[in-house]
Amino acid sequence: MLANMASSLIIHKRIETTLPKAKALREYVEPLITKSKDDSTHSRRTVFAYLKQKEAVTELFRVVAPKIADRPGGYTRILKTGFRVGDAADMAIIELVDFNETAVAAAKAETKKATTRRSRAKKGSDDVVAADVKSGADTKKSPKTKAAKAETNVETKEVAKADIKIDAGSQDISDIEEKAE
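The structure assignment produced for this chain is given below.
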């Protein structure tokens, strides 16, 4: 049974079985994968004595062995999938680690994330006000926003003074400033 399961695992790269069988299969197939790293006639015959399928041995030595050449061990992964409906047996998927495309892509993405560096973008006073408004922060507490508000208030007062001067005509400037305030 283990020879057939090991051959299926090597050919299909992933099989679904019960958890105890998957654990037994891991102990059976990992030494064979280690033997496949040395592509010699002796190691091929030794692996064939265990697997008893020529196609599985060929696949192991031609496809699997080159991909796992630099891996020191841990060639298989067992993922629990829950319980079988008929008899409530604990089911699992056993797969060859380097042949799961989604896991390999995720591992490459993690290594890329680890090597990237992020720097803070420099924000102007307008960006700070916008960020504070978005985050719900009180804009009165920020020093940059106070400066921006002070500039806005000064400009507003100057515009109001100019409007009052135009309306006032010949009135005194002190009266105009009082009206502006």
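Interim note for the steering committee: The chain has two domains: 2-104, 125-180. The chain is about 65% helix and 10% strand.
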